[in-house]
Recover the amino acids of this structure.
């Protein structure tokens, strides 16, 4: 009888141990550790660790350039070895196209720099941006928006506050089409010659009317005619706004032929280019060809915020 009781007790204890959640957790850990040891000792895992270094890139800090003002930083790349191994283990061989990457932030960001104008993006970023200053040219806005939509391109429209007040439907059309909206002053003055209070008034009034009309609060200031002094940059920075100029100018207000305008841009196009244009007949007629030729150079086209962000343009690599 005693022997029977002992056997029953042992069986009950065994059942309790097997069904205990802590036991399951412990066994799971053991299994995970076994997998970890196995994969780390796999020659493929070691190969990914070694060869992956060739595809990694160091992040680039934001900096002040003596000629080009503030230059944004650019993320680096690090190989996620574990994720890459999972993608390659079935074939059992190293396949560069299946490497999985993580972006690595730089140590210094654009926001860490003292207030300076921005003329272009990072030179390693294969992207450009159309900055379209709007204070007139209403008749060309709809066809330009249609062309941008056709080619799935977003631009940044710098809107004059007075223009927004007089043409709210066009301002809403631009914003609702997915384009970024910036501040182009209220009355298109020479901001270099304004007092500090007048500079603030131009910025405040424009931000207010854009917010009221589109629901968007601008984060970029585009001074009319590119005219500014250091105080303009500092006051904009106090409002959490960056000051944007350009590195490529269409000079479309001089009414060039489309051929002249396109050649003017394409002869100066570069990584990180900020391309200045207006709603003009020449730009409207040139826009589709410009988009095609820029994309043919493997350059993406997006908003100022996207261009100046630290995010890498990922073409042939895979993010985790």
């Amino acid at each position: 009888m005693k022997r029977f009781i002992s056997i029953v007790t042992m069986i009950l204890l065994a059942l309790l141990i097997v069904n205990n959640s802590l036991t399951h957790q412990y066994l799971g850990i053991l299994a995970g550790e076994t997998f970890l040891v196995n994969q780390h000792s796999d020659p493929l895992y070691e190969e990914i660790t070694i060869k992956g270094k060739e595809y990694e890139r160091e992040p680039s800090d934001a900096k002040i350039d003596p000629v080009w003002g503030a230059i944004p930083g650019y993320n680096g790349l690090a190989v996620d070895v574990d994720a890459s191994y999972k993608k390659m283990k079935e074939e059992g061989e190293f396949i560069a196209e299946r490497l999985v990457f993580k972006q690595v932030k730089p140590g210094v960001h654009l926001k860490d720099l003292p207030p300076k104008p921005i003329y272009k993006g990072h030179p390693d970023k294969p992207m450009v941006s159309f900055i379209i200053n709007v204070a007139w040219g209403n008749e060309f806005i709809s066809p330009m928006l249609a062309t941008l939509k056709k080619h799935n391109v977003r631009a940044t429209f710098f809107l004059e506050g007075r223009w927004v007040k007089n043409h709210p439907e066009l301002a809403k059309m631009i914003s609702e089409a997915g384009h970024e909206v910036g501040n182009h002053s209220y009355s298109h003055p020479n901001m270099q010659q304004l007092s500090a209070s007048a500079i603030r008034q131009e910025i405040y009034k424009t931000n207010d009317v854009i917010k009221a009309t589109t629901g968007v609060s601008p984060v970029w200031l585009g001074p009319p005619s590119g005219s500014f002094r250091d105080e303009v940059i500092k006051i904009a920075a106090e409002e959490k706004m960056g000051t944007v100029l350009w590195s490529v100018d269409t000079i479309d207000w001089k009414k060039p032929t489309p051929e002249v305008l396109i050649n003017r841009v394409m002869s100066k196009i570069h990584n990180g280019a900020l391309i200045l244009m207006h709603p003009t007949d020449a730009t409207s007629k040139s826009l589709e060809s410009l988009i095609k030729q820029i994309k043919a150079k493997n350059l993406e086209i997006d908003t100022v915020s996207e261009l100046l962000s630290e995010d890498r343009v990922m073409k042939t690599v895979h993010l985790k």
Observations:
- The radius of gyration is 28 Å.
- Confidence is low (pLDDT under 50) at residues 11-18, 21-37.
- The CA atoms of residues 80 and 101 lie 5 Å apart.
- DSSP finds twelve helices and 13 strands in the chain.
